[in-house]
Amino acid sequence: MAFTRPPDEKSVGWLFAAPATGSDKSSRVVGFEMSFSPMLSVLAATFATGSECLDTVVAAHDAAVDRTLALWERHATAVRLDIGAGVEWCPAVGLVAIANAETSGERRTVRSRVYVPAKAPALHDALWRPLVVERFLDWQQYGWDEYHQALAEGLNSALGWEFEYRDTARTPWGSPTLELAEVAEPRIGALIRPALRALAGGPTTGAAARAY
Questions:
Q1: SS3 label, residue 167
Q2: CA terminus-to-terminus distance, the chain
Q3: How far apart are CA 136 and CA 32, in angstroms?
Q4: Are 110 and 28 in contact (CB under 8 A)?
Q5: Do the beta carbons of residue 37 and residue 176 sit within 8 Å?
Q6: pTM for the whole structure
Q7: Checking phi first, is residue 95 left (phi over 0); if not, alpha (psi -120 to 50) or beta?
Q8: What are phi and psi of 38, to 5 degrees?
Q9: Which of 31, 44, 59, 120 pairs with 15 at a CA distance of 20 to 30 A?
């Protein structure tokens, strides 16, 4: 990750490690879960080829997630300072996050769930302080757009795939979605049914966790 100041191992351990044996402290950490997955047209095209280009799509997906988190850290990560006159904001020096990645040809799934604790070290004193939640969440739309734009650029560079904005589908914020050009609008049911069959037969894929 190209963080401004990467978190050290001690910080990661402090946030995510289980409590010592006999400790009455909970290992739960309040935070956010963000889910990233390619567009439906990309998933349809990926698995229509018999997973021949799956590795390339997964690599572009991972790079897009990294780029999105870097954007989120650079522009949306701030912490609260409680002072006598009230509450002020201060930039933070970096997000700490862990990700759980899932890829399954049977379920036609490429997805990363990223977990970010609701604390970050303040820029001026490096003390862990609460994130400014409203600012962090306000950047959801920008994070959504950044991920899809980065994914489209990566797949265009690696596979030559062209993308276009479509008015027939909308993002949660009402703007046209970025989809793979010259690919028929995927039917949601066609993607859900294989997933339901796979779930009925039990898990068929492993999950890999990686730390940022």
A1: strand
A2: 6
A3: 10
A4: no
A5: no
A6: 0.73
A7: beta
A8: -60, 165
A9: 59
Of the ranges 59-73, 118-132, 160-174, 175-189, the best mean pLDDT one: 59-73
d(CA 62, CA 15) in angstroms, rounded, equals 23
Query: What are the DSSP calls for 61-83, one per residue?
Result: HHHHHHHHHHHHHHHH-EEEEEE
Residue 139 one-letter amino acid? W
Please give the Cα distance from 100 to 203 (Å, whole number). Answer: 16
Given a contact cutoff of 8 angstroms between Cβ atoms, the answer to whether 43 and 108 are in contact is yes
Mean pLDDT for 174-192 is 66
Question: Could you give the count of Cα atoms lying within 13 Å of 202 in the half-sphere of its Cβ?
Answer: 0
If one counts every other C-beta atom within 10 angstroms of the C-beta of residue 38, the result is 24
CA 21 remoteness from chain centre: 32
Strands 31-36 and 78-83: unpaired
Q: How far is the C-alpha of 129 from the C-alpha of 92, rounded, in Å?
A: 9
CA–CA dist 135, 118 (Å, integer): 12
Sheet holding 31-36, edge to edge: 31-36, 109-117, 98-104, 207-211
In angstroms, the Cα distances linking 19 to 30, 36, 98, 147 are 15, 30, 18, 34
pLDDT at 141 over 80: yes
Structure tokens at 132: 């400014």
